[in-house]
Amino acid sequence: MLGGGNKRRHFLSDLHYRCQTSRPSTSLTSYLLPRHFYVVEHYPNQLYCGEFTRDGEYFLVGCKSGDIMTYRVEGSTLHRYCSYSCNNVNVSIIDTKVCPRREKIAYSSWNGYVYLVDFANPNSMECPLRLLDRDDRGVVESWMCAFSLSFSGDGRELIAGLSGGMFVVYDLEMCTDAVRNHEAHLADVNCVSFAHDSNHIIYSSGDDGVLKIWDRRIMNERAPQPVSVFVGHSHGITRHDAREDLRYLITNSKDQSIKMWDIRRPSPKSVVPLAQKTTQINSQFWDYRQCQAGRRSVVVRELTHRRSQFDKAQHDDCVLTFTGHAVASTLIRARFSPSFTTGQRYIYTGSADGHLYMYDVHSGQLVLDQGGHIGIVRDVNWHPTEPMILTCSFDKTLGCYHYTETASLWESYIDHGSFYV
Question: Which helix (H) or strand (E) segment is 380 a member of?
Fold first, then answer.
């Protein structure tokens, strides 16, 4: 008993000392990061996208072959739920999205339409939503594609980011266009989304390297203007994501960086034309689609070799820049970690070298570089309540990074005394 009391007092005094000193600390959440990899399932074709439902009970996978597979999630285990054989796929499924009310699944491909299918009935008729209208003359439908889809918080509207710099908002109840912005960007819109649980605020980003925020309540559809712009990338943006506090956004870019932005500190709109010109010139000297997928050093070496004198952006208002991963060949996605388990402290991303990368928002440092796949990791999804990340890869596998050492936290202190709080 006496020895146990001494150990307890020693532990508490040591804990107090560590809290009072200025030595670098490692939080509980950083120690419990998902880092153990296994393959969930092999597929006959490349995997392009995946998504957990909002409650985390299901996970959807979109395949190049035109199939959407859904899994039921029980703890850290996945069970096949059902599969959807999409009838209108050209080249590949590009993006999938499930309605917040879990009624519909939307998917897009290279064919000029977005399609809706019933979540609970894989044999249901597909409902097409046309991307073009009567004013879009001279545009070939087979050349049109929705690179990004997103439902509004109430599930009544769907937004699609299109090739050619457009985005469209569909009113699903009225079966009509609610907003059609033909001049949102100077190049393809690679990502669009509604602000968290909002139908009015829209985020968009694309190959012109600019992130924009739109407010539908004050937007003139004949001459739409964003309320805020964010400039800093020297190449196109592949993906953006927003924190739930609506204060910070991140953008993943073909310039091999992720940037974090403070929504309260936008860039001057006067710098947008020069930034767009910079991105346009850079894209002529280096095409990330032709870059050999591999380690980031290979990608950066090729980018540097073809770099023009206009490569560096003239203006950069980002809060932090994160580098280490590789963006090549496809629109690789990055996201904030979930608030329930991490407080959205981390940014995690796929990579062209087949690794999962993770950055600490507080320090700006790379905290995880974990291998597993042998092909490009295009999409990454962290479960909203479980320490598990699912990855969709071009090596035709669905992967899972998870945390399993439930007892090692206490053992780390007892055995080594090296755990900082």
Answer: strand 377-382
Mean local confidence (pLDDT), 18-33:
51
Q: Residue 25: pLDDT above 60?
A: no
Q: How far is CA 333 from CA 327, 378, 415, in A?
A: 9, 6, 39
Residues 6+ apart with CB under 8 A from 148: 95, 160, 161, 189, 190, 191, 192, 193
Determine which of 77-86, 292-301, 399-408 has the lowest per-residue pLDDT on average: 292-301
Tens digit of pLDDT for each residue in 337-355?
999 999 999 999 999 999 9
Report in angstroms the alpha-carbon separations of 296 from 89, 302, 326, 355, 360: 32, 10, 4, 10, 19
Q: Which two tokens stand for residue 218?
A: 């004050």
Contacts of 95 (CB under 8 A, 6+ apart): 48, 49, 62, 107, 108, 146, 147, 148, 149
Q: Which own/partner contact pairs does 311-315 have at CB distance under 8 Å and 24+ positions apart?
A: 311/234, 311/278, 311/282, 311/285, 312/234, 312/278, 313/209, 313/231, 313/232, 313/233, 313/234, 313/275, 313/278, 314/271, 314/274, 314/275, 314/278, 315/231, 315/232, 315/267, 315/268, 315/271, 315/274, 315/275
User: CA 63, CA 236: separation in Å to the nearest integer?
Assistant: 24
- pLDDT tens by residue, 91-145: 999 999 999 999 999 999 998 899 999 998 888 889 999 987 755 555 556 678 9
pTM score, two decimals?
Answer: 0.86
Measured CA to CA in angstroms, residue 289 lies from 46, 74, 236, 294 at distances of 16, 37, 12, 13
Specify the DSSP class assigned to residue 267: B
Q: Angle at the Cα of 297 (from 293 to 298), degrees rounded to 5?
A: 40
Report yes or no: 74 and 81 within 8 Å, Cβ to Cβ.
Answer: no
